[in-house]
C-alpha cells in the first residue's frame, strides 16, 4: 500500500518544480524519504548539490569549473559565464543537452559524447571543429565569435543550424541535406550558389547579406527572411513554396509578378517605395513601413485582408 502511495505522490511530483518537490517531502516524516526518489529537472549549480545524498537525482546542472563527478542521471549540462578551461575528461554518456558559457574557447577533441543531441556554444568559441561534433547532434548553435570553416564538419543528423554574428565563411558543400532550419548571422555575405540544401524549410539571412539569390533558394523553403542590407532583384528568385516572406530595411526592388502566389504573409522595410499593386491575392497580411509614400488605394490590392504599418 505504501509503495502504491509513493507511486501516486511521485507521479504528482512530476508536475511540481524542484522547490515544490522539496517542500512536499518536508511536510511530514513519512514523505521525507521521497526526496531521495524524486527526479529534479530545474537547472541548479552543481556546488549546491554536490554533498546531497540524492545528488544523482538531478538532471540539469550548471558548473563553473571541472567537477570531480556528475550526477548519474544528468541530461542537461551548462557551463557558466566565465568557464574557460580544457575539459579534463570525456563527459557522461547520459548528457543530451550541452551548453557552453560566454568565455569558453578550448579544444573539444574527444570530449563530447555521442548522446548529445543539442549543442550550443557561447560568444567566444572560435576553434576548429574537425571531428568534434558527434553524429547524433540535431540542434547546433554557434556563438557570435565563431568564424571557421565548417566543410565536412556538420554531421548529417543536424536539423537546426544557427550561426552567430561574425560567421562569414563559404558554406558551399558544407550544409547537410538533413538541415531544415538554417539561420545565418549578421556578417554573413557569401555566395549561396549550390549551398542551401533542398531540405531547408526555414531560411534566415543576417543584416549584411546582399548576394544574388536567383536559382539558389530551394523549393523546399516556406519561411524566408532577409536582413537589413539585402537589395537584390528577385525576378524568378522566390520559390513557389514560400508562404512567409520578410524583406529588410534597404530592399527597394520591383516586386511586379515576382511574389509567388503561395505567399500569405509579406513584410517590407523602411526603403521600399515600389507599388505593391501586383501583390498576389494569396497575401492576406501585408506589413509596410510608415515611410511608404505611394498612394495606398492605388498601390495595395483590395484582396489583402490586413495592412499594418510599423513606425521607426
From TrEMBL:
Gene3D superfamilies: Ribonuclease Inhibitor (3.80.10.10). It holds the Pfam family FNIP. InterPro entries: FNIP (IPR008615), LRR_dom_sf (IPR032675), STK_FNIP-Repeat (IPR051251). PANTHER family: FNIP REPEAT-CONTAINING PROTEIN. This is Uncharacterized protein. It comes from viral metagenome.
Amino acid at each position: 500500500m505504501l509503495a502504491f502511495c509513493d507511486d501516486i505522490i511521485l507521479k504528482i511530483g512530476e508536475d511540481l518544480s524542484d522547490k515544490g518537490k522539496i517542500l512536499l517531502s518536508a511536510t511530514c516524516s513519512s514523505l521525507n524519504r521521497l526526496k531521495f526518489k524524486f527526479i529534479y529537472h530545474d537547472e541548479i549549480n552543481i556546488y549546491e548539490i554536490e554533498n546531497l545524498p540524492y545528488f544523482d537525482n538531478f538532471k540539469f546542472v550548471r558548473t563553473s569549473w571541472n567537477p570531480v563527478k556528475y550526477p548519474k542521471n544528468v541530461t542537461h549540462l551548462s557551463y557558466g559565464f566565465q568557464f574557460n578551461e580544457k575539459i579534463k575528461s570525456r563527459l557522461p554518456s547520459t548528457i543530451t543537452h550541452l551548453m557552453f558559457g560566454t568565455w569558453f574557447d578550448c579544444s573539444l577533441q574527444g570530449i563530447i559524447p555521442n548522446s548529445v543531441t543539442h549543442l550550443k556554444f557561447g560568444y567566444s568559441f572560435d576553434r576548429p571543429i574537425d571531428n568534434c561534433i558527434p553524429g547524433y547532434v540535431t540542434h547546433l548553435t554557434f556563438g557570435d565569435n565563431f568564424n571557421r570553416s565548417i566543410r565536412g564538419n556538420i554531421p548529417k543528423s543536424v536539423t537546426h543550424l544557427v550561426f552567430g554574428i561574425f560567421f562569414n565563411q563559404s558554406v558551399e558543400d558544407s550544409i547537410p541535406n538533413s538541415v531544415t532550419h538554417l539561420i545565418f548571422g549578421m556578417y554573413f555575405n557569401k555566395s549561396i550558389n549550390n549551398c542551401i540544401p533542398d531540405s531547408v524549410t526555414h531560411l534566415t539571412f543576417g543584416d549584411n547579406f546582399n548576394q544574388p539569390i536567383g536559382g539558389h533558394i530551394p523549393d523546399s523553403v516556406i519561411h524566408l527572411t532577409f536582413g537589413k542590407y539585402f537589395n537584390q532583384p528577385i525576378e524568378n528568385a522566390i520559390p513557389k513554396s514560400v508562404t512567409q516572406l520578410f524583406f529588410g530595411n534597404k530592399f527597394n526592388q520591383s516586386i511586379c509578378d515576382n511574389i509567388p502566389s503561395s505567399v500569405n504573409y509579406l513584410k517590407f522595410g523602411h526603403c521600399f517605395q515600389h507599388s505593391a499593386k501586383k501583390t498576389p491575392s494569396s497575401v492576406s497580411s501585408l506589413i509596410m513601413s510608415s515611410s511608404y509614400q505611394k498612394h495606398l488605394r492605388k498601390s495595395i490590392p483590395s484582396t489583402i485582408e490586413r495592412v499594418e504599418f510599423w513606425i521607426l
